[in-house]
Fold this sequence. Notes:
Blueprint: H1 17-45, E1 46-50, E2 65-69, H2 72-75, E3 83-87, E4 95-102, E5 107-111, E6 114-117, E7 120-121, E8 135-138, E9 143-147, H3 157-160, E10 163-164, E11 168-177, E12 183-184
Antiparallel strand pairs: 1-2, 2-11, 3-4, 3-11, 4-9, 5-6, 5-8, 6-7, 9-10, 11-12
Amino acid sequence: MENGPSLPPVEPEELPRSRRIWRELFEILQTLLLAAVLYFAIDAVIGRERVQKISMEPTFEAGEILMVNKLAYKFGEFEYGQVITFHYPLDPSLDYIKRIIGLPGDVVDVQNGEVRVNGQLLYEPYISAAPEYEGTWNVPEGELFVLGDNRNPSADSHVWGFVPEENVIGKAIAVYWPINKIRAITTPDIFAH
């Protein structure tokens, strides 16, 4: 059985030049739209916060950039010792980074260089020096008592009061800049000793 004469291969018709350009532009727009959606989705979950001052030394240095879990307190509870970022209560356009020391209903007492919560002495190997100030604070419902790790120069709850829970942006989970300082941020057991 013989096949008939072979026909030359049929080339697909080329699209007119203007249609090709529109197709390429459409693909570029789709890619840009997908990138924007991904950026905003990630930004809704993970925040970034630059350490501006020395109030959290030696834990963080000025210029380091922290990764912040914005959903940590939507699905979890505040815990002693966690590092949080929040809108400064006296000027919400400013964001601060501090450590949770007191939760709602707690009594925080600072005397003779020691910090106690509900009478229990805190174990704080992360601080730069013992606090030189004194005071007692009763933490109201819906508020947090926070301190900087560089206790004496830090402007924090011992200076301006409590942080409303709704001001909290999220929990600091890692340092990602500069690259040579990348590390996870852990929560110490401040009642360990």
